[in-house]
């Protein structure tokens, strides 16, 4: 790349920086995410980080929100209680296609032990995921409470860490299907078959 960064249409520079953070952190860890490394990966001038996000911390916060929203949409997490048999396949395919989304979030989670500013971001990350699971269960009239939703998400989160580190897609798929079966078992605990709530 030349000293002068290439011109991008408005909005592309911001999106390129968000995507670059995912790539850099997945490859080098969170400490490798510097103004220079992210801007170089994005193919833009590093001044755009300050222009769009104010600071590297602002860029990390925006990347966290963006990555969580994309993860929820692309993995189909909001459909976990539909019991259609496709959830495990979709989850594994999505994580396989773009592991950087989860790797970035895992790096942020680990860093939150050392950095209180990042801890607040991680708390929002978990709240977002757990609320998505809780809403999916509520649509099935499975009134499980926040703790059950947290446990379900924690199981999926742990399985994705194993998938990205150890591999073994068949075993992970089987375990994700087991989580779905446990959710289905909640219907019998509630005494009536869960049905989607009417809008």
Can you walk through the features of this model?
Residues 1-10 and 194-199 have low confidence and may be disordered. The protein folds into 2 domains: 1-54, Homeodomain-like (Arc Repressor Mutant, subunit A, Orthogonal Bundle), CATH 1.10.10; 61-190. It is mainly alpha-helical and 199 residues long. The protein starts with 11 loop residues before the first helix and ends in a 9-residue tail after the last helix. It is elongated. It is built from 9 helices and no strands.
Unreliable spans: 1-10, 194-199
- The tally of structural domains comes to 2
Shape: elongated
Give the ordered list of helices and strands. HHHHHHHHH
Largest sheet: none
- In what range is the share of β-strand residues? under 5%
Total beta strands: 0
Termini, distance in Å?
Answer: 53 Å
What count of helical segments does DSSP give?
9
Computed over alpha carbons, the radius of gyration is: 19 Å
Oligomerization status of the protein chains: single chain
Q: What is the arithmetic mean of pLDDT?
A: 85
- Helical content band: over 70%
The computed structural class is: mainly alpha
List the helices and strands and how they pair.
Layout: H1 12-28, H2 35-42, H3 47-53, H4 56-75, H5 87-97, H6 99-111, H7 116-139, H8 145-165, H9 169-190
Helix pairs in contact: 1-2, 1-4, 1-6, 3-4, 4-6, 4-7, 5-6, 5-9, 6-7, 7-8, 8-9
Provide a short characterization of the protein structure.
This protein is an all-alpha fold and 199 residues long. It has helices spanning 12-28, 35-42, 47-53, 56-75, 87-97, 99-111, 116-139, 145-165, 169-190. The protein has 9 helices and no strands.
């Amino acid at each position: 790349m030349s000293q002068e960064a290439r011109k991008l249409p408005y909005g592309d520079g911001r999106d390129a920086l968000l995507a670059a953070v995912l790539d850099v952190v997945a490859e080098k860890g969170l400490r490798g995410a510097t103004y220079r490394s992210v801007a170089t990966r994005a193919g833009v001038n590093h001044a755009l980080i300050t222009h769009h996000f104010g600071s590297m911390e602002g860029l990390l916060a925006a990347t966290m929100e963006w990555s969580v929203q994309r993860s929820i949409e692309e993995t189909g997490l909001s459909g976990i209680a539909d019991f259609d048999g496709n959830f495990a396949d979709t989850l594994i395919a999505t994580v396989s296609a773009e592991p950087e989304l989860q790797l970035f979030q895992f790096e942020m989670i680990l860093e939150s032990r050392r950095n209180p500013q990042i801890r607040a971001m991680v708390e929002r990350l978990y709240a977002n995921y757990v609320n998505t699971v809780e809403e999916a269960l509520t649509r099935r009239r499975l009134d499980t409470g926040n703790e059950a939703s947290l446990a379900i998400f924690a199981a999926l989160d742990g399985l994705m860490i194993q998938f990205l580190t150890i591999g073994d897609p068949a075993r992970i798929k089987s375990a994700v299907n087991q989580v779905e079966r446990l959710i289905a078992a909640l219907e019998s605990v509630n005494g009536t078959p869960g049905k989607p709530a009417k809008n």
